[in-house]
Amino acid sequence: IKLKYISLAILVVQNASLILSIRYVRTLPGDRFFTTSAVVMAEVLKVLTCLLIILFQRKDSS
Predict the structure, then answer these.
(1) CA neighbours within 13 Å on the CB side: how many for 40?
(2) CA–CA separation, 3 vs 57, rounded Å?
(3) Where are the transmembrane segments (predicted)?
(4) How many CA atoms, within 13 angstroms, populate the side-chain half-sphere of residue 45?
């Protein structure tokens, strides 16, 4: 049960940090990046995070 809340908290922090970092970087002068590339990378990180959580869950249940 704790793992469920920990994984929820991790994903919430990850989503919030994505939004805040994109807003911060857009205010800086210099070269810009595509927002879509940042979103794709965030989704890849979400998948990796979820896979790690699943691995920890299976390890604990064994």
Answers:
(1) 5
(2) 8
(3) 37-56
(4) 14
